[in-house]
Amino acid sequence: MPKIIIDGQKVECRPGVSVLQAALEAGWNIPHYCYHPGLPVVASCRLCLMEMKMPHPRTQEPVWAPKLFPACHTPAKDGLEVRFDSPKVRDSQKHVLGPDVLPVILPRDLVSDFDDLGHPMTRLG
Ligand code: FES
Questions:
Q1: Which residue has the least CA distance to atom 3 on ligand 1?
Q2: Confidence category of residue 93, pLDDT binned at 50, 70, 90
Q3: How far is CA 38 from the centre of its chain?
Q4: What domains lie within the chain, and their CATH numbers?
Q5: Residues 10, 80: contact at Cβ < 8 Å?
Q6: Pocket of ligand 1 (CB under 6 A)
Q7: Sorting pLDDT into bands at 50, 70 and 90, what band is 94?
Q8: Mean pLDDT in residue range 107-116
Q9: Using an 8 Å Cβ cutoff, are 41 and 29 in contact?
Q10: Among 65, 43, 39, 45, which Cα is nearest to 54's?
Q11: 3-class DSSP state for residue 74?
Q12: Once rounded to an integer, what is the mean pLDDT over residues 44-59?
């Protein structure tokens, strides 16, 4: 069973699952939209982006990569370390769910209803 680290916590996951699926099964509440376990992965909505440690090209020391990766499209390999609980990830989620994008994926009247029910940007802080 692969063991990965999510937000500093060790998580044992089923072989062959994505980081997103592993995180969801372990109880994380990761925003996602285009992912469904029964469908091919398209990784197009960018809601599940995460930070991931990778070997530095010169030192080979594991460091946080400068870009974000889609958790739904990243296999949960043994020893992998990722984080969702970071300002960079939250900024990305706010951008994806922000006023520029939300009206595109939801009808205008639903966007205002959505605000009344607690806009995701509010919940993301
Ligand atoms: S859930 Fe859409 S990119 Fe991962």
A1: 43
A2: confident
A3: 18
A4: 3-123 (3.10.20.740)
A5: no
A6: 32-35, 43-48, 70, 72
A7: confident
A8: 52
A9: no
A10: 65
A11: coil
A12: 94
